[in-house]
Amino acid sequence: MRTLKLMVLLLTVLLAACQPKKQSAETDVPENEAKYVVLAYVTSWSESVPDPSCLTHINYAFGHVTDDFKGIRIDNEPRLRMITGLKEKKPSLKVLLSVGGWGSSRFSEMASADSTRLAFAADCKRVIDRLHLDGVDIDWEYPGVGAAGISFAPEDKENFTLLMRDIRQAVGKDKLLTIATSAGGKYYDLKAIAPYLDYVNIMSYDMEESPKHHSALYTSEMSGEWSCEKAVAAHVEGGFPVERLVLGIPFYGHGTNEAPEFLDYRHIITLDSLQSCWDSVAKVPYLVNPKGHVVANYENAQSIELKCQFLHQNGMLGAMYWDYDCDDEMGTLRNAVYKGVMQLPE
Fold this sequence. Notes:
This protein is about 30% helix and about 20% strand. The protein has 10 helices and 14 strands. Helix 4 crosses helix 5 (about 155-170) and helix 9 (about 300-315) runs parallel beside helix 10 (about 330-340). The N and C termini lie far apart (about 55 Å).
């Protein structure tokens, strides 16, 4: 009888092991994905299908303020629908519409009056609900400045705060509201907007032009005035909590007159005639020609690993990058970001 009971018990265990496992929204999702942000900007003009396994968030670029200042116009909406469809593969993935971008105007006019500002905020809610988004990212470059050829006014900084308030009230507390900021953070009242935002994506790149590093982690002779370290410090000093800051990482480089101004990482690695060098102070790589002249400044897996260590050491929320399609076919950089953010340094 005892032998029979043991046989029945063994059979029960074997049958249970053969049963298919129940799938859940969080199947195979690392625990740290609930704590940290790994965000990719995905553009409307590209055709790739992002791999959601190495992401927690996607910002779709772009939407724009409509001509009447009352709503949002979306570039290539069918592609955005495809991106939101990635949630079928990874239900925990968050997809936001990023409104703005370099040269995207009409923010100043929209934010200057209660009527248009409230109408725009209401349209954020409408777009989120209609397209099943997780929130919106406001990428106004930049309040009070016309560098990108956009309209601007002295009141933009104050009106930006009112805009954040109105969007938060419109979309509710359960949807994400984020912004992309310049490295110095000087165009925003960071302390005033902090209560309305989930997190801030610091554009800690394009801080200098080649031959200087445009995304140096620390200041060196080749970095110029700005670095990622200084950008984070500026935001904290401005009153935004460090635990809700996301560090920006470029998947492209800047070239000198001997190379294009912008070079995707996937193109940089094909430049066999150039020598790769390492700035041990700034913690970033660069390329030189046979004469030793700097040709391009960029990022690689090593510099990304160090940036991720830095963000963890400073208690930041995670990392974002522009943009997904600048990476190589192997996903060298995006995998480095994901690994660096999710695997905490010892």
